[in-house]
Amino acid sequence: MLHLLLVPQLRDINLSTCQNIVTRSIALTMRVQCRNLLSLNLHGCKQLPADALARLVESLPRLIRLDLSKTLCDTQVLSAIGSSCRQLRELNLSQCRTLSLTSLLYLAYDPRRRLFGCQSLQKLCIFGLKAPKGHLWALLFVLMALPRLMFLLNSSISSVLHLIYKQQFDHSRLPPGFPSLAELFQHRMKARREEDISRLTLLLREIIVVRESVLSVINIMCPYMEKATVFLDDRPLLAYSFLSWRHLTHLTIICDKHRNLSDLLPMMASLGAQLHGLIIRHFFLAEESSFHVLLSYCTNLQEFEGLFLPPRTSVCGRQEDIDTLDWDFSLPCFEFPQLSLFTLEYPDAEIPLPFRHAMVLRQSLVNVLKESPGLKYLTLRRLPFSLDRVFERVLKSPSTALRHIDELVFSQIRVSVQVVNLILSSENELSYLCLLKCPGISETDYNEFTRKVDTEGFDVEIMWKSSYTSE
């Protein structure tokens, strides 16, 4: 039956939903009937032998997108792609067990014909490929051999970029027939000089696992970076290395050492307005206002996730109960017109925050919830204060806050039955409510919530887990 559907008019074929019937005969039919294909998805089609796959891609010179993830793709197939698919822009090779990172050499270069392949390739997905000894040199070769490559995600890329920047090619080992890395570098530099550009830069748009120590090098080599994950150590923050990333829109910053959130503020004062996504993890809330100031710099965010630690100086003596005190902090409010996802975490709800820190954090949370009209996904975990007064303020009539909320997750949060009922009764688009180990919510309360949802006809899925349940 599938044979009858493979007609010459097709430009886009997705066979990932019928993996088990994609065989050699199907590949032969496509070779004859579908030579004008622009997009082909063979994800998981393990019934198709590598030799048949190689002949198939050789017959599809107009391909722009090709997904071979979880197939029997091997080096022979990569050579066929490199030689035949000259217009290919996107290629997915993830979790191909017969490939390794060193196999990618044959995608970028044909040693028999001494020609570069896939010169239009922009996105290459290689998740789950084996990383044998010498794989850094293969990745380095690929980065320099594919001049239009924008997306190549691998945890070793920052190390590879450092090698290119330092031109440390002396210990490289490539198979016979391939140009040396020094020759390839000179080839790329010649092309750059013809464009009147004095240094080698790459078009990469995203990078993961960047250590702060090599951040300045990555910045020089990848001026078009849009998305980066950076691990900070305990050196002074290299703010200038971030500031020249004028195209950066999504930033993840993870702190390995002891750093205060206030350390980020000078950088965010200049960078924050251009960010659409920001993830910050493991910074200390040393100064009470640092989180509020951070948000004030990032009002164009679409997504925010933060995990913050208490000040390193321990809180001693009796703590004031902030849940019973008036809100007398006159903090300025900021609007977040594009924010759709917000996650705020604290390491342990039993570790108190200093009074003023907790008050500012709570009022900042109210500001975000009230001034984010498009908020859809909200997750709050282990915050060290009750959320009752937060939501009472946010939803106080007449309120338009949380009208578009779709998913709400409370994990190890102090919240009362009354506030959960207030959320369920408010005008919103809630479809999923998670109450995970919230000490104020019992199984009886959960049953009442589900009964309320059923009785009033709400289309809401409620998940509950007892606070006494072990992990």
UniProtKB/TrEMBL annotation:
It comes from Anolis carolinensis. InterPro entries: Leu-rich_rpt_Cys-con_subtyp, LRR_dom_sf. This is F-box domain-containing protein. It comes from the Eukaryota.
